[in-house]
Amino acid sequence: MDDWWKPLLEPDGLLLRERALAEADPDALHVALRSGRLRRVQRGVYLPRTVEATPLTVARAAILSSAVPYAVASHDTAARVHGIALPEAARREHVTVPGDARKRDRADLVFHTRALELGEVELRQGIPVTTVPRTLADLAARLARLPAVWALDDAFRRGLCTPQQVQRAVANWRGGSGCVQARTALAGADGRAETILATAARLALADAGLPLPRTQFEVLDGAGRFLARLDGAFPEERVGLAFDRRSVHTAQEVLYRDRARQNDLMELGWVLLRFTWWDVVEQPGRFVDAVSRTVARRRATVHPAR
After folding, report:
1. Among candidates 65, 67, 73, which has minimal Cα distance to 116?
2. How far apart are CA 75 and CA 156, in angstroms?
3. Residue 305 pLDDT grade (very low, low, confident, very high; cuts 50, 70, 90)
4. CB atoms near residue 97 (< 10 Å)
5. Pairing between β-strand 15-16 and β-strand 45-48 as defined by DSSP bridges
6. Pairwise CA distance, residues 275 & 201, whole Å
7. Residue 86: CA atoms inside 13 Å, Cβ hemisphere, count?
8. Of 248, 272, 250, 275, residue with least CA distance to 260
9. All domains in the chain, ordered by first residue
10. pLDDT digit string, tens, across residues 50-97
């Protein structure tokens, strides 16, 4: 039978190696994997190619593959379940286990043992996952600064939790690895940036000791009608910041709309500076200098010394 595994599938579509080997020909499993009709999700856990690997299914696969009682999906794995922004990187799943059950990390699975407090685990369709505040605290303690602050910014802006909830989760640790890093990331988050590039720009300006722009600033025309919403703005100097996504705008409608917006802003006396990922992340010094010079020049023009 081609789909011999169907009677052996778990309700979410997962196939466990132990059951497959106990009830089917081992060679059939190898053939199905080589042909791509089954795919490996975690060590000893498979999924038919016709079944979607949802974040929750992958989380359960990680817990099952850990073979640790009371394992909880956490960190990046929990973030994907909650829809928290993560950097594009090699994908590994994460579980948090009791301190005496720590195992050696694998290429596809990372084990953590920081204690989970009461209320820091929730069940999603019966699968234990760290809550949003605890997940963000874990990410802030592990990720590099920019992706950590962006994860916090994105979650706060979308109302997934509050900064105070994450602060309480970090405070529960009472020291230990990653505490300082997590607090630093929390201090850099404002919960208003809509892209990781806007977060990167704010961090670069803050590191240089410069005043921070107003985020998502709305510009109105002389009649009080909405004209544009800027990624960043220095309203008194009428300097706007626009951060282009990594992909280049190609649609004519988008290009025309951007040009019209820029022309409208110029008529109101605004200067609009546009920056790409390369400008902000790869050359932060030049980005900071460009913003600093423009703001200083505009300040001298708009508010000349008396």
Report:
1. 73
2. 17
3. low
4. 21
5. antiparallel
6. 9
7. 22
8. 272
9. 6-48 (no CATH), 55-188 (no CATH), 196-302 (3.40.960.10)
10. 999 999 999 999 999 999 999 999 999 999 999 999 987 668 999 999
Greatest Cα pair distance, the chain, in angstroms, is 89
* Strand-pair category, 93-96 with 109-112: parallel
How many whole angstroms separate alpha carbon 94 and alpha carbon 76? Answer: 6
Taking the C-alpha atoms of residue 255 and residue 248, their distance in angstroms, rounded to an integer, is 10
Residues 258-281 pLDDT 10s: 666 677 788 888 999 999 999 999
Which of 100, 102, 176 lies closest to 142 in space, CA to CA? Answer: 176
What strands lie across the sheet with 38-42, from one edge to the other? 15-16, 45-48, 38-42
Residue 248 has pLDDT above 50, yes or no: no
Going by C-alpha positions, the residue among 305, 157, 295, 301 that lies closest to residue 235 is 295
Element (H, E) at 169: helix 163-171
Token digits for 263? 């022309």
> What is the Cα–Cα distance from 99 to 77, expressed in whole angstroms?
19
- What are the tokens at 103? 């195992």
* Pair 103, 55: CB distance under 8 Å: no
